Amino acid sequence: MIKRLWKALAGIRLTLWLLALLTVNLFVGSFYAKFMPVFGELNTRLFPAWLMTRSDGHSWWIFTLFGLLALLFANTLVCTLERVVFLWRRRQHHRRSIFWLLLAPSIMHFCFLFIIGGHALTEFTGSKQRLPAAVGEQVSFDDCQVTLLERHYDYWQEPALEGKMRQCTATLELKNGANVEQRQIAILEPIYWQGYSMHLGMAGKPGTDELPPLQITVKKDPGLLLILLGNVVLCLLMIWYFPQIRKIRNGGEG
Amino acid sequence: MTIATASSVLFNVAAGAYAGSLFFHLLKRQRISCLFLGIGFVIHTASLLARCWSWGIFSLDGVFNGALFLPWALALVGLTCLMRGRVRDAASMSWLATLTMLTTLALPVQIPPPGPFTATWSSPMFFCLEVLAVACFLASGWFAWQQLRRRDEDLLFNQLAIWGFILYSLAQVVGAVWSYFGWASLFHWGERHLQSAAIWCLYCGYLHTHFDRSFDIRRKARWALSGAMVVLVVAYALQVAAHLTVLNPAKGSGKGSGRGEARVTAQEQVHGSVPHGAVPGACRNPELTEESHD
User: Fold this and answer.
1) Which of A112, A178, A222, B273 is least crowded, fewest Cβ atoms below 10 Å from its Cβ?
2) A2: which residues sit within 8 A by CB, 6+ positions away?
3) What residue numbers bound the domain in which B200 lies?
4) SS3 state at B253
5) CB burial string B124-137: b at 16+ within 10 A, e below
6) Helical segments of A96-223, H only
7) Which ranges of chain B have pLDDT less than 50?
8) Does the interface ipTM go beyond 0.90?
9) Distances from the Cα of B260 to the Cα of A199, B141, B193, B243, angstroms
10) φ, ψ for residue A216 (rounded to 5)?
11) Mutate which of A12, A14, A23, A200 to disrupt the B interface (most B C-beta within 10 Å)?
């Protein structure tokens, strides 16, 4: 039974079908996400919390998406393990540089598994919260308190950019028990504190006589390093692998 | 003449050069066609460089907007073919460069002003890589279509699809970094990110056809052509349509490709709509525009 399942999962044809179905699923999902704001809430809540309160019949594409991704994960894992075992047994037949070149696609596939695993870790075990950033107001999460002490807006001085905002910064007071500290936060310049990352963003459109309202996203992202590591290694290997393999196929040295 | 006007004039001249390249390609004068393609590319580069200073400061915002940058990237693919001795293929790229250039001239777009969410290396790098990848995918589809019309085997479309996939993957990584710093998330549950993931899966599938013996060159060419059609609609037409002045008449003013009116923020380019409702610069009260505190 396990052998049959393993064999079924190890097929390249299954990979092609899964990738084709994922493509269609993602396109369909993109239109749901465009027209139904409820899916935007996935950006501010973890998937389990969203699932319990906000999912309904329109959420079918998310379940099929996760199902297809789980199958692709298993398919990739099985195919990659088979390939690695195959290459390892034949390692004496190749020069070391060629062996590493042949192994590179398998490492890329492991990177892909890291990326999918990292996203799953973040979606299922991380934490996401959006807090309004009003001056003087204190917000709490876990044992931490964050107070926004002041906001600061910079505008471009150039005539062509009159009235256009250049940057937006805020000073935060961060409190955890007896530990109190002040930190500066700005758009695109998050801060890291007590295992959380805090990102300054805008909460809505400003009125004619109002400054744009701000919000702070507080996030715990346990999958972040896995995703970044997987992505960086994957890209570096792709840049190295494809030209090299092409050179060899055209008769050059490895 | 302002720098912005100079940039627009150069853009029009470059369009003329690309059109000249297409004219000579149709006359089967491939070398002259390539010469015009090269001239157009140089002038187009000058136009894009001038655009960097069009706001009165150095800014790459909008320089890599698909409508303005894609014809340049397509011409670059053509010139790369020329450097590899593929004169006819290089000349045939004038079709794509000219058509995308004329589309931009006929349907002007408005580029976003620099804002707090784009003041980072990852923003222009993301758009640059993404448009280069789109150019490779479109060129791949173009040569796949030509492959389907003849009997010999030319894998140029395959090489372009591979390079497109590499560039697209790099764009996704850089975009994820930008998204993380700006919007606290590597992946955004929104139209734009889901469609990018779909295109990535589509070409990932294409790469894996190499390992299925039933996929001969014609079936691979069909996949590459279908992929290019999807990219044309999703990564070019829909993205450019979001910036078209004719479709966004009420969006205020800003600097454009010469005739535009609408303004689209970088957030809209990335997420499809403003994720946090942010419109930098919308606050126009003069008392609040100078380093305001509250």
Assistant:
1) A178
2) none
3) 3-276
4) coil
5) bbbbbbbbbbbbbb
6) 96-125
7) 251-294
8) yes
9) 33, 30, 27, 9
10) -115, 125
11) A23
